[in-house]
TrEMBL record:
<dbReference type="GO" id="GO:0004497">
    <property type="term" value="F:monooxygenase activity"/>
</dbReference>
<dbReference type="InterPro" id="IPR002401">
    <property type="entry name" value="Cyt_P450_E_grp-I"/>
</dbReference>
<dbReference type="GO" id="GO:0005506">
    <property type="term" value="F:iron ion binding"/>
</dbReference>
<dbReference type="InterPro" id="IPR036396">
    <property type="entry name" value="Cyt_P450_sf"/>
</dbReference>
<keyword id="KW-0472">Membrane</keyword>
<dbReference type="Pfam" id="PF00067">
    <property type="entry name" value="p450"/>
</dbReference>
<comment type="similarity">
    <text>Belongs to the cytochrome P450 family.</text>
</comment>
<protein>
    <recommendedName>
        <fullName>Cytochrome P450</fullName>
    </recommendedName>
</protein>
<keyword id="KW-0503">Monooxygenase</keyword>
<keyword id="KW-0479">Metal-binding</keyword>
<feature type="binding site" description="axial binding residue">
    <location>
        <position position="444"/>
    </location>
    <ligand>
        <name>heme</name>
    </ligand>
</feature>
<dbReference type="InterPro" id="IPR001128">
    <property type="entry name" value="Cyt_P450"/>
</dbReference>
<keyword id="KW-0408">Iron</keyword>
<keyword id="KW-1133">Transmembrane helix</keyword>
<keyword id="KW-0812">Transmembrane</keyword>
<keyword id="KW-0349">Heme</keyword>
<dbReference type="GO" id="GO:0020037">
    <property type="term" value="F:heme binding"/>
</dbReference>
């Protein structure tokens, strides 16, 4: 009996060992294979610098290195063979992929698989008919003047009731250092939640702990971005299958988000949707499927949250380094708004042309989405003569395009809002030369809302406070991720203006 037990024990032990070994090999083999394949596949100068990280000796950020390579490329297109990625900063190519041959450059499966668990079938994550249906429905809703005034009211409320009191509470204190990037992330989460869901997570009330929803949403966004950055996608897929580590956390975060979304949808149905002004209630008039409703709204939240926070962070970074632009914004505000500290309507915000120019100029130099990729469906040739093989990832690089002399002239590296004005009136550039909100058929649907948010915050804060960088510097370092984020945040000293 003892012998049998010991035999059984050893057999089970050995089986466990082999199963574990199999799992480890199964996880590591693709990674090893992938790395070896990459190394053997290409030893061109660019791929070599990419793989050995030698570019880091001269550049702080990957986007700066890409901008340098694209600037020096005669066609303004480069290839990172090891990533199967063709990157372009050529406006003709951008127009071609976003408009002329739009159908040949969908987002593609690799992207939708990465974000699929979080975004489901939401607009941000689908192509074809599913995308067309949501685009039509969303465009109809976002075009209404009622949604514009709803958005304006939310933003003004957040600024007056939360953002300004928060800054006042630290202003003038010796240890009154505030990370503006963190503050803007909280502001944009509160705003987009109320706009999309009619929910108030109160993230700007720093004394309160962050709501479960905010924590779960943050985690799911962060882990989705990490999926996109892993060398070998098989690793996260295996972790997901086995429900391990970050993938286990992802599953739990999505469960929390779904639970809350379901509760809100149920409540809306009970209360009646006609009295509500948020996007979810508007979409509920044409969609019955609750999971689909949840997906649609979560896409909007992802699209409209970090982007706005990122744009505000770089705008305030540039304004801290260019006080003359801040003064010109205030002169214009005095002329247009008079003594009122805040604009009173959506229309009044639109009349601030110099402010609009400053916002666009800041995103030219620091686009919140630095690059955006599509996947080529059929072999093709771009307008600059570049051959693109089926399945290739093709990326347009907004960050590099904002630094192209051919597009912006010899002063392209300077922060000069005036370049956007003709006789004092803001004049937009074509989206294919300035694809910060993308362009063509999949142009950003929240562009107008975003610009109102950015202008409102900039105006209200500049009229009330002085900001000083805790450590002055000229160029930010970015953290890896889907949206541009300043590494170390944007710590500033806040001081209330005397005439307040
Ligand atoms: C400064 C702020 C913003 C910037 C720079 C920005 C930029 C972009 C870009 C580059 C895309 C294309 C992404 C892709 O297809 O991969 C996009 C799409 C989108 N954006 Fe924005 N966005 C901003 C704010 C917002 C806001 C506030 C909302 C929501 C109210 C929003 C809603 C959307 C939606 C729904 C899409 C998907 C459109 C489609 O696929 O047809 N965005 N945005």
């Amino acid at each position: 009996m003892e012998l049998a037990n010991s035999w059984l024990f050893h057999t089970l032990h050995a089986m466990c060992f082999f199963i574990l070994l199999f799992i480890i090999l199964f996880s590591l083999f693709p990674l090893l294979f992938y790395t070896l394949r990459l190394k053997l596949w290409c030893n061109c100068e660019i791929c070599d610098a990419y793989l050995t990280l030698s570019w880091t000796k001269r550049f702080d950020n990957l986007c700066d290195w890409y901008a340098h390579l694209l600037k020096n490329s005669p066609s303004k297109t480069i290839h990172i063979h090891v990533l199967g990625n063709t990157i372009t900063a050529n406006p003709e190519n951008v127009e071609y992929m976003l408009k002329t041959r739009f159908d040949n450059y969908p987002k593609g499966k690799p992207f939708s698989v990465i974000l699929g668990d979080f975004l489901g079938r939401g607009i941000f994550n689908v192509d074809g008919d599913l995308w067309r249906f949501q685009k039509k429905m969303a465009s109809l809703e976002l075009d209404r003047s009622s949604i514009r005034s709803y958005c304006f009211e939310i933003v003004q409320y957040e600024i007056r009731q939360r953002l300004v009191p928060l800054l006042l509470s630290v202003s003038g204190k010796e240890d009154g250092v505030l990370d503006l990037q963190d503050v803007f992330r909280r502001f944009s989460f509160d705003s987009i939640c109320r706009f999309s869901f009619g929910l108030d997570p109160r993230c700007l009330e720093i004394s309160q702990p962050l709501s479960d929803f905010a924590v779960a949403f943050d985690l799911a966004s962060k882990l989705s971005a990490e999926r996109a950055m892993t060398v070998c996608p098989l690793v996260w897929k295996i972790k997901r299958k086995l429900n391990l580590g970050s993938e286990k956390k992802m599953k739990e975060a999505i469960k929390t988000i779904n639970g809350l979304a379901e509760a809100v949808i149920r409540l809306r149905r009970k209360m009646g949707i006609s009295s509500q002004r948020d996007l979810l209630s508007r979409f509920m008039t044409s969609v019955d499927d609750d999971t689909f409703l949840r997906d649609i709204v979560i896409s909007f939240m992802l699209a409209g949250r970090d982007t706005v926070a990122s744009a505000l962070t770089s705008l305030f970074f540039l304004l801290a380094n260019h006080p003359e632009v801040g003064s010109a914004i205030l002169d214009e505000a005095d002329r247009v708004l008079g003594p009122h500290p805040d604009p009173t309507s959506f229309q009044q915000i639109r009349e601030l042309h110099y402010l609009q120019a400053a916002v666009y100029e800041s995103m030219r130099l620091y686009p919140p989405i630095q690059f955006d990729s599509k996947f080529c469906q059929e072999d093709d040739v771009l307008p600059d003569g570049t051959f693109v093989k089926k399945g290739t990832r093709v990326t347009y690089h907004s960050y590099a395009m904002g630094r192209m002399e051919e597009i912006w002239g010899p002063d392209c590296l300077e922060f000069k809002p005036e370049r956007w004005l003709r006789n004092g009136v803001f004049l937009a550039e074509t989206p294919f030369r300035y694809p910060v909100f993308q362009g063509g058929f999949r142009v950003c649907l929240g562009k107008e809302m975003a610009v109102v948010e950015l202008k409102s915050v900039a105006l209200s804060l500049l009229r009330r406070f002085h900001f000083q960088l805790v450590t002055p510097y000229n160029a930010p370092r970015f953290s890896p991720g889907l949206t541009a984020t300043f590494r170390g945040g944007l710590p500033v000293l806040v001081r209330e203006k005397e005439n307040q």
